[in-house]
User: What shape does this take?
Amino acid sequence: MVASFNTNLVTLNGFINTQEHKHPEATGNLSGLLRSVGLAAKIVNRELTMAGLAEDILGETGNTNVQGETVKKMDVFANEHFIAAFRRGRRCCGIVSEEQDDMVVIDEQGAQYLVCIDPLDGSSNIDVNIPVGTIFSIYKRISKDCSVTKEDFLQPGTKQVAAGYVIYSSSTMIVYTTGDGVNGFTLDPAIGEFCLSNPDMKMPDDGKIISCNLSYQSEFPAFVQKYVHYSFEHDKATKRPYNLRYVGSMVADIHRTLLKGGVFLYPPTTDSPKGKLRLLYECNPISFIIEQAGGASTNGKKRILEIEPNDFHERTPIYCGSKNMVMRMMDMQ
Ligand code: AHM
Ligand code: MG
Assistant: This one.
């Protein structure tokens, strides 16, 4: 008997090439940029897996970032490595990062793409070995014949040409979309390649999980409080009560929501009257993915993707996940 082996291995780079060949007009620049994300993700992953061993990785730098939050050493490491990868790749003309007040201008002739990135989301969880992530969003520049401008970055999320996240967890994955569905790749550490593991991801229209920081419940808007109450009522027909699951790393909570269905919310609170999560490099890329997988994402008034940004680091409330659950919540307004 001849042994049969699975030789249908599709690597991230192979997948990117195949997608590029489907579009004869493609220049290869977006592909190059996505490859840079894959490379930097592997470098960050390598460092994170050492976090318990290498003393100089854990803990804080002693500085605060532009939003007054304590900067962890891994935040800085991830930020520097993603930016370096984009510079080396030579396809990127500018970057807005959660870790930097102003945009990073890259003087690269002919580069048409720009990136908004949260290099290490949920980094307060590193010290306790809980999943963290990278979230990124790619746009085409609108400015011509000059350096990248502020306006290039302040485009609504509907203009994203690609977006994705990396989840560093029991396995490390990249999940991304270029507006043609969502695909997930798991890192095989033995061969050092991201391999296609979750093709054409679709999320369930309904779910049984609600994910939010309930310690702020009394500060949530009335309709959200109503929905939280509804979620925990007992009703067999509608499979309630829902389960409460909250990691406190957006990427981890979103990844679960994508795979199992459910709803993730971060409403306004007293301390964060506009919500906590950032539009450009957290809510927009996540919303693009959620919508591409068949879900919904809103700030309570309109699609997240339709918000016209005013500032690199602006925040927004977010309610996203399984379509029917998000709709029901909005109906309670
Ligand atoms: P960060 O970008 O500073 O890591 O903060 C974002 C994180 C998200 O990953 C997560 O959803 C949220 O903050 C958790 O906030 P809270 O602790 O208020 O529930
Ligand atoms: Mg973040």
Q: What stands out?
A: The pocket of AHM (ligand 1) is lined by residues 69, 98, 118, 121-123, 213, 248-250, 276 (CB under 6 Å).
